[in-house]
Amino acid sequence: MDPTTTSDELWSAVETFDAEAAELAIARLLWDVPLSAAVTGVVLPFLGEVGDRWEAGTLSVAHEHFVSDMLRRKLTALTAVPPTPVLQDASAAAPVVLLACPPGERHDMVLLCVALMLRERGVRARFLGADTPVPAIRTAARAAGADAVVLAARRPTTFTAHASALRRLAADHPVYAAGRGADAQTLEEIGARPLPADPVRAVVVLVGELSELSGSW
Q1: pLDDT, tens digit, 9 for 90 and up, residues 188-199
Q2: CA distance 109 to 75
Q3: Of 1.10.1240.10, 2.60.40.10, 2.60.40.1080, 1.10.287.130, which CATH number belongs to 3-78?
Q4: What CATH topology corresponds to 96-214?
Q5: 156 near 174, Cβ under 8 Å?
Q6: What phi and psi values does residue 126 have, to the nearest 5 degrees?
Q7: Where are the domains of the chain?
Q8: How far apart are CA 77 and CA 112, in angstroms?
Q9: pLDDT at residue 131, as a whole number
Q10: pLDDT tens figures, 45-99
Q11: H helices within 57-179, ranges in order?
């Protein structure tokens, strides 16, 4: 099936809030595609176009919510059955990574993609989602025994408004920051480590560093 035709069908369905047609079109685009390829080849370009159309005034907030809900369900379905982790040491437990957006950041779809790709690599990902209070992140990280915490935001101020609390979090767990808001100055201010902007590359880097930290995974 022609991907261009399917993409046109998807946008036509989105514009008219036709859930059945939209889900059928996105299912065709994601059919028999590995998760990482689905993220880079379908999900991220689609989300980018959603943003462009929203800025141009051709899509409403309602359209954005409609798209986000549909993609969230489809992405989650791709990893409904967690893969069996491949451990270098059979007695070692897979690392736990907590993922969240700080208060004020409501766009968590890319971070969800990272969480799902981490699960695909055998990581025990704990996804808290958008607009999560920092004390709640810290409590959850402690309760889950997180080996790392990944935070994402589009604006530096979303991080720096909670700099003191995030530094305390970073004193207890390795904290990684991603998104346009995670510039070098912000990373230094909150005590976080950088991740690449590309989510697939970010997963590769994070898994590599977790492996080095544990020495057995």
Answers
A1: 999 999 999 889
A2: 10
A3: 1.10.1240.10
A4: Rossmann fold (3.40.50)
A5: no
A6: -120, 105
A7: 3-78, 96-214
A8: 12
A9: 96
A10: 888 888 888 888 888 989 988 988 888 888 777 666 555 555 455 556 889 999 9
A11: 61-78, 109-120, 134-144, 156-160, 163-172
Those residues whose C-beta lies under 8 Å from the C-beta of residue 127, and which sit 6 or more positions away, are: 99, 100, 111, 112, 115
Beta carbons within 10 angstroms of residue 165's beta carbon: 17
What is the pLDDT, as a whole number, of residue 85? 55
3-state secondary structure of 88: coil
Beta carbons of 141 and 96 less than 8 angstroms apart: no
Domains 3-78 and 96-214 share a fold: no
* Residue 40 DSSP symbol: I
* Structure confidence by residue, pLDDT tens digits, 110-148: 999 999 899 988 899 999 999 999 999 999 999 999 999
Contact by Cβ (8 Å): 150, 195: yes
Which of 33-47, 111-125, 147-161 has the highest average model confidence (pLDDT)?
Answer: 147-161
Structure tokens at 51: 């943003």
